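Minutes, project check-in

Agenda point 3 was the complex the collaborators sent over. CS summarized: two entities, 844 residues total, and the question is how they sit relative to each other. Sequences were read into the notes so everyone works from the same version.
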Amino acid sequence: MSSTIFFSTLYASLVLCALGLVWRVSAWFRLRIGPDARDVASSQRVAAVFRGAASALFGSRALRLLGALFLDVLLLRKLFASEKLRWFGHLLVMVGFTLLLLMHALAPLVSAKLFPGYQPTLDPYLFLRDLSGAMVLVGVALLLFRRRADFPQPRRLIDWAFVTLLLIVVATGFVFEAYKIASPRAFYRMTEQFIGSTDRKELEPLRAVWASEFGVAFDDLKQPVDPALLQQGRKLQQDSCASCHSKPTSAFVSYPVARALAPVERMLDAGRANEWLLYLHVFACFLGLASLPFTRFFHVVAAPVSLLVNAAAQNRAFSTAGRASQRALALDACVRCGICDARCSVAPVARYLENAYLLPSHKLVATGALAGGRLLRPGRENDASPDDTHRDEARRVAEGAYLCTDCGRCTSRCPVGLDLADLWRAGRDDLAAVGLPPPEQWVQARSALAWAESLEAGSGQHPLADADAAFAPLSADRRSFSRCVQCQACTNVCPVVAHSIDAEHGIDLTPQKVMNLLRLGLRDLTLGSRMVWDCASCYQCQENCPEGVRVADIMLELRALSVHRLGALRGRREPA
Amino acid sequence: MKYALFLGCKIPAQLPAYELSTRAVLGHLGVTLVDLEFDCCGYPVRDVSRDGFALAAARNLALAERAGLDLLTPCSCCFGTLRHAIRFLGEDAALRARVTQALAAEGLAWSGKSEVEHLLSVLAQKLGIDAIAAAVRAPSAGLRVAAQYGCHALRPSDVTGIDNAMAPTLFETLISVTGATPVDWPRRLDCCGDPLHQANTALSERMTQAKIADALESGAEAICSACPHCHLRFDAVQADSADPSIRTLLYTQLLGLAMRLPAKSLGL
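CS then shared the predicted structure for the full assembly.
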């Protein structure tokens, strides 16, 4: 391989990688998630990080930081606690990859300096290289196998690039090594250099040994091999080759591949496989390097930083500026492993409602999209087009955000130790700020009468008219409220009515009036009412109704119904 | 006696002392608690989807059913939700068909075999007041306590059925057994205000403050809750308020202290 090509590509990749890193890391100080983050300038956030880092490195917390580096970053303690098999897989990839990077890719800088007499073709290096490659392959296989299939992770093509490149690098490495083991061309190159001969006759004893014991695929060797010739060859091998070559059988992956390649070895030799296989391997490595900041590979930077930052701040006691950066960092440190999704308290609901945005890993991506301005484009909320998928997407994100129960299981199980609970709170505030507040707020932003008029204007359009019985079977069935005699017992025992003493925070209808509107067939008038949304669900009304009307059950039904029916009207332009 | 412990979302995340003290007290009384991989009971989903609500609850019930266990929950809202779901599934065949289909996709089934019990009813009715009394070693000396059941433990009575919903005595009896004195407070059956806190904060806090004032006027020294929502709401409102405050105590802590369990095991 020409060193000009090698080094120019290497330096180009390094420059791309460095620029990409600067851009990605700067996002940790640029992205604003949560209302408190809007009050801090990027410069304050950078300053906070330097302050925090200084006090952590030179203070009493330095030891804890060291502990975190060892236990959390290198030994993946949190992943071990969450999922053993995946931890094992990840550890294999990590150790294998690191060994290959240091011992193999950076061999002139590391191995050659650390180990006098280092030769890549000598044991234990020969064996260790194959072992490292095999660890990566087995590890990746384990990780792919453990991937959850409930909801596909939010992965774009670029997210697959990392895994694909890694596999290409390891596979071309193995094939290149196997090719070299079996290659007669490589054999003659060596004999020319170290024995000074490429003469077949002269080298016959050595060829016999290298064919039978070192896997070189000569196609012009006399069979069966004469034992005396072999004996002679072994001596020659001892004198000329052994100081640099162990038996390739210890390359336990490449050697079998070399055996398999034997029949096509002459073709590979003729086709200059020694060059293009090497180019393939090296360019795949450089592509991986250049794309590091843009693929999931970036987690090798973001996840350790996140773990260390968490360890540095005791009990996650961040300043506002620190917290703002921590949230943006979390978006990059998430590896989309899906462990949070699997233990999410509302995962069954997510499946049933077919809304993946209830799940943490999807919610995280949506939180990033909202902060980065990709979830909503200005003006979209008032777009009149009913099939505006962009707006629907944002609605689904909001539905997911507000159905979160804050149970904290995602945070406690996250192998990267992300403070997801904090991210969800900030994300909800951001949603509310862009016109996607929780139902109780957007419904109550208009009066019950205004909603009813909109419903009337849009009658026949709402897609769920037939489904009302499924959403609200009691209020759709006269028998459940026709017994109401308007005695006001429900109103008299209602604590919400009793405490509604000012106009601003008071209710509009009373429970008994809601029942009356149902009796009059004016259900639409109740849907946007404050009474329905301010019902405390204490069931006093229902317990005290002398006629056995299930008042509270009906109230709660009307809520769910209003989310669907009024939600369908939301964002449409008001009729002129 | 063996139950699947249903903690819900609120207790592990925000009130670990309730989990600790429940395990300590019930363990001491010989109740075996089994942990299954339960999820959200369905309570918050009710505002958005009746189906989602029923499915979430039914899935938890099905998990308990598969393990052959009844559920015990220390959360009144989880209790009410799970009991409500059983009612809905029983009376709405179409809903039940949809939920059955969704559960079947995971190899689960709900048939109603598993019962849902509230912590209070297990203590007072399944174990019995006498057994509790026998376990009390250090009766608290007349601490005046206001009992807070949590609405969804009591009402609607045709769903919950743990006591007379208009004039319950179960919690007060359980308090007496510890040596404490239950106080009679006019607002004892009122809502704590928690479910309304997001929708109407001002109104919600008025409701909470009215209860606290009432408990204080009635001579209570502590409010003892059997629901994490109520307990946390009293704490949150008092934390932001300059008004006279009242101590909050979980029933399992009160009982645990009377049973001479180490304070640490009760999260105190």
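Noted in discussion: Chain B has a mean pLDDT of 96.
Follow-up: revisit at the next meeting once the mutant set is ready.
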